[in-house]
Design goal:
Blueprint (H helix, E strand, L loop, with lengths): L1 H12 L56 H19 L4 H12 L9 E3 L2 E6 L8 E5 L1 H4 L7 E5 H8 L3 E8 L6 E8 L5 E7 L4 E2 L5 E5 L2
Antiparallel strand pairs: 1-2, 2-3, 3-4, 5-6, 6-7, 7-8, 7-9
């Protein structure tokens, strides 16, 4: 009896099951583990239907998308007159307008620059150059109270020459000489740009150079 007890204790300690003595009926068989459920594949999301094209019935102001049409411009002028009349009725309007204009046209503004090679470029607007000048100078000149600037593009003169209301949108120049640039211009400040290749040394747009038509690019 003691020997059998020792055997049972040893089997339990080792994680085993004690042997069934002879003649002892077998106990019930252990329940089988349930079979795992078959994996299911997630259904792909349904494709969204295409957006229907806008039409005048859905948007009565769709015609304003043609921002340069006579009808759209007349509508804008009409509403500008209403807004302008309301603003000018404010007693402090004229004083504020003149003060802001004087600040914007001040010759004492800091001409912020971008360094490209040996030159420091700046785009400048004032009362004499409302569309602006893209110009450059040297570091020695920039340190002076009144630097001498070399005008690269006179946007007012270019607008007159091209008969376009050009608005400056920036330039990207080719490293390391920075002599070839892509100049971005928009008509009237629109959110679409015209891109034209420009030669800094000759101050001319390159005939047959890269030219990207007006686009929101």
């Amino acid at each position: 009896m003691q020997l059998r007890t020792l055997v049972l204790i040893s089997l339990i300690a080792c994680g085993g099951s004690p042997a069934r003595p002879p003649g002892e009926p077998a106990g019930p068989a252990p329940a089988a583990s349930p079979a795992p459920a078959p994996a299911t594949t997630a259904a792909a999301p349904a494709a969204k239907p295409p957006m229907p094209a806008a039409n005048a019935a859905d948007d009565p102001y769709l015609w304003l998308e043609d921002v340069t049409s006579d009808r759209a411009l007349a509508w804008a002028r009409e509403h500008n007159q209403v807004t302008q009349a309301e603003l000018e009725a404010i007693p402090s309007f004229a004083t504020s307008r003149d003060r802001i204009r004087a600040i914007l046209d001040s010759k004492d503004k800091t001409p912020y620059v971008t360094k490209r090679g040996a030159h420091y470029y700046n785009f400048w607007r004032d009362d004499k150059n409302p569309r602006g000048l893209w110009r450059r100078t040297s570091l020695a000149e920039y340190r002076k109270p009144r630097p001498a600037w070399d005008v690269v593009i006179d946007l007012d003169a270019l607008a007159t020459q091209d008969k376009e209301s050009w608005v400056w949108q920036g330039a990207s120049c080719l490293y390391p000489k920075y002599e070839r640039c892509l100049v971005l211009l928009s008509r009237g400040g629109a959110d679409a740009n015209v891109v034209r290749e420009f030669e800094v040394t000759t101050r001319k747009f390159i005939d047959g150079g890269l030219a990207i038509p007006e686009a929101k690019s």
